[in-house]
Design goal:
The radius of gyration is 17 Å and the shape is globular. The chain has 231 residues and is α/β, with parallel strands linked by helices. Helix content is 42%, strand content 23%. The protein starts with a helix and ends with a helix. It has nine helices and seven strands. The protein has a seven-stranded mixed beta sheet with strand order 3-2-1-4-5-7-6, sandwiched between helices. It has a single domain, classed as 3-Layer(aba) Sandwich (Rossmann fold). A hairpin with a 2-residue loop joins strand 6 and strand 7 (196-205).
C-alpha cells in the first residue's frame, strides 16, 4: 500500500511539470477557482497600486490585477515560462521567495496561495520575513493555505491531501504562529474551494524596521544550511 501511494505521488510530481495539465486538474478539484476569485474580489476591492504574487505558479490569478500593478514570482522556470506565454502583459520572474530581489517596502500588498504547506518551518519563516521586509508599513498580506480536510465525508479531499506533494499541511493555528513574529492578524476565515479546505489570513506588517526583518531573515540561513546538510 505504501509503495502504491508513493508511486501515485511520483506520478503527480511528474504531472506538475506539465503546467497545462496540472492547472486543469486543480481547476476540476477546486471548482474552477471561483472561491479564490471571490476572495480576491472581497479583499482587494480597492486594487493595490503594486502587488506581489509570491509563489505565483502558472499565474492563474494574474488577470485579476492590472498588468501595471501585478508582479508574480516563482522558483519554477517552467511555471514562469507558462505564465509569461499566457499573460504576456503581466510581469513574471523566476525568484526564490526566501531571497526577494526587491527594495524594502516595495509593495502595497502581497498574496500567497498554497505555498507554505510545501515549506518546512525554517524556510517558511525566512520567506515570511522577506515578505514583511518588502511590504510597506501599512501593507497587507493575504495568505491562504491548505489545512487538514474538515469533513469526514469529503473523501476526495482526504485522498488529495494524502497524495499532496506538500509535506507540511498545518492547522490554522500553526500557520498563525508562523506569521505572528512579522504580522498582526486582522481577520481569518475558513474556505472550502471545491474539495479543498483552506485557512485564510488577512494580516498587516508589524511595525518593525526593515533592516531588523532583513537581519532576522539572514539569521535563518545558517539554520537552513544545517537542515539541508543533514537531510
Amino acid at each position: 500500500m505504501i509503495k502504491r501511494v508513493s508511486s501515485v505521488r511520483s506520478s503527480i510530481e511528474r504531472l506538475s511539470q506539465l503546467p497545462w495539465a496540472f492547472d486543469g486538474l486543480r481547476w476540476i478539484l477546486e471548482g474552477g477557482f471561483q472561491k479564490h476569485r471571490n476572495l480576491l474580489s472581497r479583499h482587494f476591492s480597492d486594487p493595490p497600486r503594486r502587488i506581489l504574487d509570491c509563489g505565483c505558479g502558472t499565474g492563474i490569478f494574474a488577470n485579476y490585477f492590472s498588468p501595471d500593478a501585478y508582479l508574480g514570482i516563482d522558483i519554477s522556470a517552467t511555471y514562469i515560462a507558462h505564465a509569461r506565454a499566457r499573460y504576456s502583459r503581466h510581469q513574471f520572474h523566476v525568484m526564490d521567495a526566501t531571497q526577494l530581489n526587491f527594495e524594502d517596502q516595495a509593495f502595497d500588498a502581497v498574496m500567497v496561495s498554497g505555498v507554505v504547506h510545501h515549506l518546512d518551518m525554517a524556510t517558511s519563516k525566512k520567506m515570511l520575513a522577506e515578505i514583511a521586509r518588502v511590504l510597506r508599513p501599512d501593507g497587507t498580506l493575504l495568505l491562504w493555505e491548505d489545512v487538514p480536510t474538515r469533513s469526514a465525508f469529503n473523501l476526495v479531499g482526504h485522498l488529495v491531501h494524502r497524495l499532496d506533494v506538500g509535506d507540511y499541511i498545518r492547522s490554522g493555528s500553526e500557520y498563525a504562529q508562523l506569521m505572528s513574529p512579522y504580522f498582526k492578524i486582522e481577520s481569518t476565515e475558513a474556505m472550502r474551494s471545491g474539495f479543498m479546505d483552506y485557512a485564510v489570513f488577512r494580516v498587516r506588517r508589524r511595525n518593525l524596521h526593515s533592516h531588523v526583518m532583513k537581519l532576522e531573515s539572514n539569521a535563518l540561513t545558517p539554520l537552513m544550511e544545517t537542515v539541508v546538510g543533514t537531510a
